[in-house]
Write a structure and sequence with these properties.
Length: 260
């Protein structure tokens, strides 16, 4: 790569012709967290912020806090070791993933209309192929994100999880769609809902296919993304780096996109 590429990027950032879009939801005690029914075991806690000092007798000139925070909370990254299918993959933890993988091109499939009409909407292989016919092929090494505008519900756990007596209702991919994306050798799959899978995914084959299949292929996930309505279908660059947690299975991220 020539140095002029970076020089022109730097000046484009300064002039504002390249913009930075924040794809991150606010992270705090009100952040919705996943709820799994008892047959699936334990749940992750809500965020808690504990004050150490606040310019007082506990620290006269400074304020600082410590956090109680699940790895899979808010806008977050799923590492391959998160799922049993990815547990023996190379470089499958947040501290061993090559940093080159944290910056990549991004494809955004807008299915917000479909999700508004049907909260159980599932993205299919045919629907991805239609998108490719219109916008161009999904290239190896790129992210694929589904826009659903679901992030607009993240102010409340009830609207975000959207559960009734039959379980949660939120959009996501079919197992076949994930298989297709893996065949394209993408770097990862992400969406705006609480996790990378649909609300109905516990009953799919395999259960939670975005987790099972993507991580089994050594690939990554991004969940609870925001503001995907500000991205073009193609041409943006996604920056999403998890904390370098030792043996981490995932991590909250500040996900950013560069758009021109
Ligand atoms: C554990 C079990 C099921 C799911 C998840 C975690 C997530 O969505 C996650 O945050 O990885 S669906
Ligand atoms: Mn996760």
């Amino acid at each position: 790569m020539s140095s002029t590429t970076l020089t022109s990027l730097a000046s484009a950032l300064l002039s504002g012709s390249v913009k930075v879009v924040d794809l991150t939801a606010p992270l705090g005690p009100d952040t919705p967290v996943l709820y799994l029914p008892p047959q699936f075991g334990k749940n992750t806690p809500k965020v808690a912020v504990h004050t150490i000092s606040e310019y007082n007798e506990d620290g006269p000139f400074w304020a600082w806090n410590w956090l109680e925070l699940g790895e899979h909370t808010g806008t977050h990254f799923d590492a391959p070791c998160h799922w049993i299918t990815g547990k023996d993959k190379e470089n499958n933890t947040t501290d061993t993933i090559p940093p080159q993988n944290f910056v990549a091109p991004v494809n955004v499939i807008d299915r917000s209309k479909e999700a508004a009409e049907n909260p159980d909407y599932l993205l299919t292989v045919d629907s991805i192929k239609e998108w490719e016919a219109e916008h161009g092929a999904i290239e190896a090494g790129s992210w694929v994100l589904m826009r659903s505008d679901w992030y607009k519900r993240n102010g409340s756990t009830e609207t975000f999880l959207n559960a009734d007596e039959n379980g949660p209702h939120s959009p996501g991919p079919t197992a076949e769609a994930i298989q297709y994306l893996i065949s394209k050798n993408i770097i990862g799959w992400g969406q705006e809902t609480i996790g990378t899978d649909a609300g109905s995914a516990g009953g799919m084959n395999p259960p939670f296919p975005a987790h099972n299949l993507m991580h089994g292929a050594g690939k990554y996930g991004l969940a609870s993304l925001s503001n995907l309505d500000q991205l073009p279908p193609k041409g943006a660059v996604l920056i999403a780096a998890p904390l370098k947690l030792v043996k981490g299975t995932g991590s909250p991220v500040r996900a950013l996109a560069l758009i021109a």
